[in-house]
Amino acid sequence: MDNYWNEVIKRLDLTPEGAWMVYLAGAILIPLSLLLKKHLSWKEWYTTFGVVGFLAWMGNIVFFYQLDLLDSGKPSIGSIPDTIMFAIAPACISVIYYNYYTSSKSKWVVATIFTVGSLITEYLLVNVGFLIQKGWEILYSIPFYVIMFFLFLPWHIKFIKNKNKN
To answer: Of 95, 88, 84, whose CA–CA distance to 34 is shortest?
Structure first.
């Protein structure tokens, strides 16, 4: 029985190189997403968290496994840091984003700040050794962040807010 639990702990891969940054980000982002929900109802928070978490995890499957352009932690194991990085952190960031995406004047500024912040975070994850590039460059991520912060998330919030009115 001890061997079974040792194998379970081993497969959680709690200590890959650079995981400290993922844990730190999760420790900051999760409380912020819960405490800074000024402009979202709990239903909107829940919907956004689920949709963005799902899309981020699907992106992980495509880019990390199917296309094999990047690795994280120990690539053969879907670990706790992977779950934080690919599902929880993007969902938290999207909820935090909505709290600053309010006035029409600041929408471009907020989207630009979140795009640049995401690029810097990705750069840091590569430099601390958590993300291993295998044919991927950080600049390739720019279109994905632009689509997410300038197009998808603004559309998504309008969609769920209009659904709540009906």
So the answer is: 95
Which two tokens mark 47?
């919907």
What are the start-end ranges of the E strands in 56-143?
70-72, 131-133
pTM assigned to the model: 0.88
pLDDT in tens, 21-66: 999 999 999 999 998 867 888 888 999 999 999 999 999 889 988 8
User: 67 by DSSP, 3-state: which?
Assistant: coil
- CB neighbour list of residue 90: distance below 8 Å, 6 or more residues apart: 52, 53, 55, 56
**CB–CB of 70/133 below 8 Å?**
yes
Side chain identity, residue 132: I
Cβ proximity of 109 and 148 under 8 Å: no
Cβ pair 111, 150 in contact under 8 A: yes
Query: Nearest CA to 21 among 130, 137, 132?
Result: 130
pLDDT tens readout for residues 100-110: 887 677 889 99
Instruction: Write the Ramachandran bin of 57: left for phi over 0, alpha for psi from -120 to 50, otherwise beta.
Output: alpha
Helix, strand, or coil (residue 132): strand
